[in-house]
TrEMBL record:
Protein name: Methylmalonyl-CoA/ethylmalonyl-CoA epimerase
Keywords on record: Isomerase, Metal-binding
Keyword Isomerase: yes
First-level EC class: isomerase
Organism: Peribacillus huizhouensis
GO terms of molecular function: methylmalonyl-CoA epimerase activity
Length: 145
């Protein structure tokens, strides 16, 4: 199965300051900014594009239940996850199972841009949070604007 880095998720404490840095210092472009209060997400998200590559800035909206808040409390701000785009998420999940790699079943969802995603169990990925995703209802472009 083909895999390509889709984006890197970065946990931040102050979304506005982080957006300023990525736009003014790194020359990025703000593609979208939205809030998700879904259980297990509870974050405000800014999508930044830099030379065709995507960064997701993730700020917790609930310091008690947000997984981003827990991550920052345990590890500090910084790289939270790396997302790999796969051709077909369903087939990728079968491959992972055959390889003995577990996923976090409760993380399976579709985001507002039609991206289907799931997180692999960090116990099976040397501690790195890895997301697998696909865009089943879109052409190759991750976020059409």
């Amino acid at each position: 199965m083909n895999k390509k880095i889709d984006h890197i998720g970065i946990a931040v404490r102050d979304l506005n300051n982080s957006i300023d840095f990525y736009l003014n210092v790194l020359g990025g472009k703000l593609i979208d900014r939205y809030r998700s209060e879904a259980i297990g997400v509870e974050s405000e998200i800014a999508i930044i594009e830099i030379n065709g590559e995507r960064i997701e800035l993730l700020a917790p909206t609930n310091n008690t239940t947000s997984p981003i808040a827990r991550f920052i409390k345990q590890k500090g701000k910084g790289v939270h996850h790396i997302a790999y785009r796969v051709d077909d998420l369903d087939k990728a999940l079968i491959e992972l199972k055959q390889q003995g790699i577990r996923v976090l079943e409760n993380s399976l969802r579709i985001n507002k841009h039609g991206r289907r995603l799931i997180y692999l169990n960090p116990a099976d990925t040397e501690g790195t949070i890895i997301e697998y995703c696909d865009y089943p209802n879109q052409a190759d472009s991750p976020i059409p604007f």
